[in-house]
Design a protein that fits this description.
Length: 258
C-alpha cells in the first residue's frame, strides 16, 4: 500500500473513529476511485488534499467503503433454513429469551427480516435482536424503518400486510416488529462484540471486504459472543476457517459453535 493511500486511510480513520485499514486494498482503491470520479479529481494526492479541506467528505468515504445494499429476506433459502431448522431447535433447548445479532445491518432489512422470521415461526417466544453498523445514516434509516416496494420483493403479500403499513408509495415496519430490534453503531474491525450469550449471529456479505487478519479477529469475537451450539450465518459468497465452528449447511453457509 503506497504512502498516500495509507495517509488517506489513517487520516479518515482518526477523524471518523472507524478503522478502514483492515479492508482489502483492492476494494478500498475501487471505492476511493468512485469518490474521485464523482468529485472530478484525478489522483490520490489531490483527493487527500480535498479530504483535509472538506470534512464532510470523510463521512462520504466511510459510507462508500461500508457500502450498504440489501433487501428483505435476501437470498431467501438461508431464511427458510433458519425458520425450518434453527429456530425450532433453539426453542426446544432454550427456555428464556432467544437472542440474535445482525452484524453489519445496513438499513435494517436484515434484522427486521430476522424478527419477521421469528414471529412467523415462534409467535409466542420472547426474543431480542441487536443490530449494528458503522454507518450513522444507515442506522437512522433503519430506526425509522420505511422502505421502497422493491426492497420488499421477497415477501409475500400476506407478510407485507401483516408486518408493514403503507405510507404513500412506501412501507413502514409496524411497531410490534420494531420493538424487538435495538440499533447501535459498532465497528466489527476494532471493537469488542456488542454483547455475549447470543443464540445466532447473522453477518452476511460483510467479511468479504475484510483482510484475512481482520476476518480472523471478527470470527474470534463471534465465537466468544455465541452460546455453546450457537449459529453463525454468513453470505453465500463467503467462507470461513472451520476452527471453532462446524458446518451445518454448506450451501447456505450456516455454521455452529463447537
Amino acid at each position: 500500500m503506497d504512502l498516500i493511500l495509507r495517509g488517506i486511510l489513517s487520516y479518515t480513520s482518526k477523524r471518523s473513529g472507524v478503522r478502514l485499514d483492515m479492508y482489502r486494498e483492492s476494494y478500498i482503491r475501487r471505492r476511493i476511485e468512485l469518490r474521485m470520479r464523482f468529485l472530478g479529481l484525478n489522483d490520490l494526492s489531490e483527493y487527500f488534499r480535498y479530504i483535509k479541506s472538506n470534512e464532510e467528505e470523510i463521512n462520504e468515504l466511510v459510507n462508500a467503503i461500508a457500502i450498504n445494499v440489501t433487501e428483505f429476506m435476501r437470498d431467501r433459502s438461508p431464511f427458510e433454513f433458519f425458520m425450518q431448522k434453527i429456530l425450532p431447535e433453539l426453542s426446544s433447548r432454550r427456555s428464556g429469551i432467544i437472542r440474535f445479532w445482525s452484524a453489519g445491518c445496513a438499513n435494517g432489512e436484515e434484522p427486521y427480516s430476522i424478527a419477521i422470521a421469528v414471529l412467523e415461526t415462534l409467535p409466542d417466544r420472547g426474543f431480542s435482536i441487536y443490530a449494528t453498523d458503522i454507518d450513522d445514516d444507515s442506522l437512522k434509516k433503519a430506526s425509522v424503518g420505511i422502505y421502497e416496494r422493491d426492497q420488499l420483493k421477497n415477501l409475500s403479500p400476506e407478510l407485507l400486510n401483516k408486518y408493514f403499513e403503507k405510507t404513500g408509495n412506501r412501507y413502514k415496519v409496524k411497531e410490534f416488529v420494531k420493538k424487538h430490534v435495538r440499533f447501535k453503531k459498532h465497528d466489527l474491525t476494532s471493537q469488542e462484540p456488542i454483547t455475549k450469550y447470543l443464540d445466532a449471529i447473522f453477518c452476511r456479505n460483510v467479511m468479504i471486504y475484510f483482510t484475512e487478519e481482520q476476518k480472523e479477529k471478527v470470527l474470534r469475537d463471534f465465537y466468544n459472543a455465541l452460546n455453546s451450539g450457537g449459529y453463525l450465518i454468513i453470505g453465500k459468497s463467503e467462507s470461513i476457517p472451520k476452527i471453532g465452528f462446524e458446518c451445518v449447511n454448506l450451501s447456505e453457509k450456516i455454521y455452529r459453535k463447537v
